[in-house]
Every structure is written in structure tokens, then in C-alpha cells.
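User: Sequence in, structure out. Go.
Assistant: Echoing your sequence, followed by the C-alpha cells.
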Amino acid sequence: MAIIKIQRTNDYMNLMRDYRLFIDGQKIGSIGNAQTKEFEIPAGRHSLIAKIDWCSSQELSFEIDKDDSNTLLVSGFIISKWIMPLILGIIAFSFIVTLITHFYFTLFIILPAFLLLLYFLTFGRKNYLSLKEKEKVTA
């Protein structure tokens, strides 16, 4: 049997939720925040998908030989690390400007970030998670 190791990054957007892992359409388990798990799978060509709620990653196809080890990395969407601090910074900035100038423009500043998040929850839902091959070790 071959071994597949799946590492999940530390992601505060999905901190309390586990990703469900599917190989060839069959659920093999789930992985929590900043966890690493190993699974034994038969040698051959496989596809892996990570899912969370109705969102998922793109399907990653890989081939693994008997007695080989493959490490895959799963994480949240690419901008998840900076979108929340950015939105909070914008809200704080607009609050200060509103106090000084009495001009309310918070909605115009926050709207692009909100639309981007809305995209990942609707049309881009299959790009919400990122899945990539990190390391392959042959025996």
C-alpha cells in the first residue's frame, strides 16, 4: 500500500471547521486546522478533493506507486489570510474619517471585499480551498 500524507495549514477563516477529504469520490476522513494526517491507499492513479460545507477545492489528480509516499497541502482560499485584517482596517479607517469629515463612505470601501467573498461562496465555490502536491518520496 502507498501512503498519502495530507497537511492542513493554520487558517483562521475556517478555524473551527474540519475539511472533509475524498479520494476517488469516497470519503476517507476529515482534517482539522493545522493537522497532518496519513492515509493508506492502493497504488495507482487517484483524485483528491477537499470539501467544507458546499465549497470545495479543485480536483487534484496524482499517481502513486506501491511503497511510495506523497505529501499534499490543503488550505483556505488564497486571500483568506489578509482579507479579514484588511476589512477590519478599512472599517477602522472609515470610522475615523467619518468622525473627522462627517462623510459616510464605508459602504463604498467595503463593497469590493464583500463582493470578492461573495464570489468564493457562490460561483467560485470550487476554488474556496486550495489543494496542491507538496512532496513525493519514492521507495
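User: And one key feature?
Assistant: The two ends are 12 Å apart (CA to CA).
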